[in-house]
Amino acid sequence: MRRVAAFALLAFISVSDALSAELTPFLQARRLGVAISALPLPEKLPRELTSGLTNRLLVRITLLSESRTVAQRAVEVAVKYDLWDENFAVTTRVDGAVVQERTYRTVAEVLALLANLRLEGLFGTTELAAQPPLVVRADALLNPIDRERLDQIRKWVAENTARTPPTR
Q1: Nearest to residue 46, comparing CAs of 1, 95, 110?
Q2: Which residues are CB-contacts of 89 (< 8 A; sequence separation ≥ 6)?
């Protein structure tokens, strides 16, 4: 089995489609993960992280063989600043299932996490062993709803929310 796992790791080619980020596949407990390092983040992100709104980083990890999709995972990293406790709750989901929940004290810790993600256990190596050389690709999207759209939604909700008298 070690030979198969070593083959799977060596068959991967790092691709930097995520704005010059570097992708590095790794094996852990017979599962393939991907480390995304040097992910460029917007300058305004530290201020947005402390707004109290949930910020989301969506990452689609795709394994390709000869331009054909072999496997794919959707990863969501949600960051919510607790204005009362003054800390950051970070929840990571893979294909909708929570895989990790952590609390961070500072913006710097959260920025370091987001810029250098380590996504463990995404793919089983046994089903990948028979594949020809594979390419890993990551597509990342930060805060899929932009601030302007969010402000428009808030305005619409405020204008279209009518108070109803309590029923007796």
Answers
A1: 110
A2: 79, 80, 82, 101, 102, 103
* pTM > 0.85: yes or no: no
- Owner of token pair 């939604």: 153
The conformation of residue 167, written as its DSSP 8-state character, comes to P
Tokens of 2: 């070690």
How would you write the pLDDT of the chain (168 residues) with one tens digit per residue? 333 333 333 333 333 334 578 999 998 888 899 999 998 888 999 999 998 889 999 999 998 888 888 889 999 999 999 999 999 999 999 999 999 999 999 999 999 999 999 999 999 887 677 767 888 899 998 887 666 666 767 777 777 766 556 666
Structure-token pair, residue 122: 């995404």
- DSSP 8-state secondary structure symbol assigned to residue 48: H
